[in-house]
Amino acid sequence: MSLIEWKKEFLIGVPDVDHEHRELIELINRLHASLDRDDPPITVEEFLGDIYAQISAHFALEEKIMRHHNYDEYKEHKADHERLLDDIRDIMDDYQDDSRFDKERLAERLKSWFTLHFKTKDARLHKSLR
Predict the structure, then answer these.
(1) For residue 115, which of 107, 104, 105 has the smallest C-alpha distance?
(2) Taking a C-beta distance cutoff of 8 angstroms, is the pair 115, 2 a contact?
(3) I need a labelling partner for 35 at 20 to 30 A (CA). Which of 7, 26, 27, 102 fits?
(4) What is the chain's Cα-based Rg?
(5) CA 58 to CA 19: how far, in whole Å?
(6) Which residues, 6+ apart, have CB-to-CB distance to 98 below 8 Å?
(7) Residue 85: its pLDDT value, please?
(8) Residue 48: which residues within 8 A CB-CB, separation 6 or more?
(9) How far apart are CA 128 and CA 126, in angstroms?
């Protein structure tokens, strides 16, 4: 079973952003499946690195669109992006120190952040761009 199920409400109406949202969810779901199978550690580290890189690139695209449209909640939205990037860095540090790594905690952190962010920040952005 997937960690995050794709939902239509995740769409913001910008094809490139919507495509990246789907890709990010697929990547997170692959990581989750990898953790459930207890794949070798290097695989998980690579996934965490890939997630960080893809999310960083995605946030740059979203922030560019928000700046282009003079989005009124740009600073708040960007701050939420920064919180997730900090959280992912913490997850990566936790993974490197096995004594603090908890795969259920990782799964819940990613799921809750994305679900909440899509339903709040990205939903508001979608309404603003229409």
Answers:
(1) 107
(2) no
(3) 7
(4) 15
(5) 10
(6) none
(7) 92
(8) 31, 88, 91, 92, 95
(9) 5
Q: How far apart are CA 10 and CA 19, in angstroms?
A: 11
55 vs 9, higher pLDDT: 55
Q: Residue 75: pLDDT band by 50, 70, 90 thresholds?
A: very high
- Domains of the chain: residue spans and CATH: 14-129 (1.20.120.50)
SS (H, E, C) the chain: CCCCCCCHHHCCCCHHHHHHHHHHHHHHHHHHHHHHCCCCHHHHHHHHHHHHHHHHHHHHHHHHHHHHCCCCCHHHHHHHHHHHHHHHHHHHHHHHCHHHCCHHHHHHHHHHHHHHHHHHHHHHHHHHHC
**Whole-number pLDDT of residue 65:** 93
**Contact yes or no for 25/4 (Cβ under 8 A):** yes
